[in-house]
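Review form for a predicted model. The reviewer records the input and the model, then writes brief findings.
Reviewer: anonymous (R2)
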Amino acid sequence: MTSAFVLRPSLLALPTSDASTFQPPSTNDLLGDWWIVQTSLPYWRDKRNVKITYTQLANDNTATLSVQDDASYQLLDSDKTKMIRGINTLSQRDQPGAWDWRGTGWVKIVSNHWKILAYGPGGGEEMEWLLIHTEKSFFTPAAVHVYSRVKTALPRFVKDALVDALVDSRDLRILLEGVYEPQPA
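Model under review:
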């Protein structure tokens, strides 16, 4: 069984000349709720029900598009929902589908650069999953995350196809092979 998906060419070092070949999903496709169903980031190991909600911010008369994200989750031993809020702006430093994140409130000092590496449909025509790469930051290691519109992990054949497609990127293959599933409800 195969799965059709869109994969960023030359994933880690995308030359400017190749940047136009990757068409990331539109900002409208990004908006809404996404479950982190697989990740290599150690931070989520003791969390469950990890969900990212993207909301477009009102244009403040700047040319930079901004999207708020609310990462909600529960600790494994608690029913209380916690949240981390950040603001994402389209990155001006490199490729299409790349964003710069900065926390708000008590995490305002935290920032990160992330990009969409691949995306694809679920059962219908809509984009239903994203493969995200976050760069190493002062507080976190580099990581990959699989976001899904539904609270289930990618089918194994999709993950295997992604790993196979990453033949030129040893570091990303290692990250993707090391993903785990945060605890469900």
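Findings: DSSP finds four helices and nine strands in the chain.
Further findings: The CA atoms of residues 31 and 60 lie 18 Å apart.
Recommendation: see findings above.
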